[in-house]
Design brief:
The protein is an all-alpha fold and about 290 residues long. It is built from 15 helices and no strands. Helix 5 runs antiparallel to helix 9 and helix 8 runs antiparallel to helix 12. The protein has one domain.
């Protein structure tokens, strides 16, 4: 009996990031491979996930909290600072590795066909694996200061994580594809990552920006990383404050009702643009690599 002939599909063409879900097993293999390679021959291994953010925290806390006396005007400044650092580190690590992911896997891409989107997406999940132990340390520090979050604050943390991951994947697809053709794309990304820590309320509080920008403050709030960091502060830092301390610095108005959905819209737009550029350029990845 004759078998029905399925519709022919042009080789190398897929459905974009949707194919990542269809190849979940390959995604898991890539994540495991990246983690093993990164810590191969390392003495500390996964402990480096703690060492780097700890050193960043100590440097910023001493320079800004002690020398510039930021902790005087910001209650529990150590919690405020570390909550921002762990999330920004997740974004910078995700985007930096996603930008290099296609070029770093050139040998695999030249040999077989598989959804190219797997490589940038896998780097984001590797960064998420590094984020988890840092969040555990953050939660432990919060508990020592009387942390008592609401269920909405805990759910908001998950939302902030997915917001940051969505933006990282979108930009990772865009710059990962561009890096195949223009290797100085890595230098552009390095400059972006250098600015990110200062372009979000990690080292300072948002009213400082509002006083300077005035009516243009909404442009600052459209940055998804800014919104995600402020949500982390709302979830981890705010519940550690006493009623008197909470009255000194409040969260930005309409954070969850206006800025959170707006930030998701911006991140989704970046993802669509990144996916379109990636699909356009990925056809010739093997030849260019």
């Amino acid at each position: 009996m004759a078998q029905p002939v399925s519709e022919l599909v042009q080789p190398g063409r897929g459905r974009g990031i949707v194919d990542v879900y269809k190849h979940k097993f390959l995604l898991q293999l890539l994540v495991r491979k990246e983690i093993k390679i990164r810590y191969r021959g390392s003495v500390l291994g996964l402990l480096w996930s703690y060492v780097k953010p700890l050193m960043q925290f100590l440097i910023y806390f001493v320079a800004l909290g002690v020398f510039l006396d930021m902790q005087k005007g910001t209650p529990n400044y150590a919690i405020y600072l570390f909550a921002g650092i762990v999330l920004v580190n997740f974004f910078t690590e995700s985007l930096g590795n996603a930008t290099r992911s296609i070029v770093d896997n050139r040998d695999l891409i030249r040999k077989i066909y598989l959804p190219r989107e797997l490589f940038p997406v896998s780097t984001v999940w590797v960064s998420a694996a590094h984020l988890l132990p840092q969040v555990v340390v953050l939660v432990g520090a919060c508990l020592l200061t009387g942390w008592s979050p609401s269920i909405w604050q805990l759910l908001a943390v998950i939302g902030a994580f997915f917001l940051t991951a969505l933006l990282s994947i979108g930009l990772g697809l865009l710059f990962g594809a561009a890096n195949v053709y223009f290797r100085d794309s890595e230098n552009i990304v390095d400059m972006i990552l250098m600015i990110v820590t200062w372009a979000s309320p990690v080292l300072y509080v948002w009213p400082m920006v509002q006083r300077v920008m005035g009516p243009w403050f909404f442009l600052y709030q459209l940055n998804p990383v800014t919104v995600a960091v402020e949500i982390f502060h709302w979830a981890f830092w705010s519940p550690t404050l006493s009623p008197a301390q909470a009255g000194t610095i409040s969260m930005p108005p309409d954070l969850l009702t206006v800025w959170f959905p707006s930030a998701f819209g911006v991140a989704a737009l970046v993802l669509v643009i990144g996916q379109l550029v990636f699909m356009k350029l990925s056809v010739h990845f093997a030849q260019e690599l």
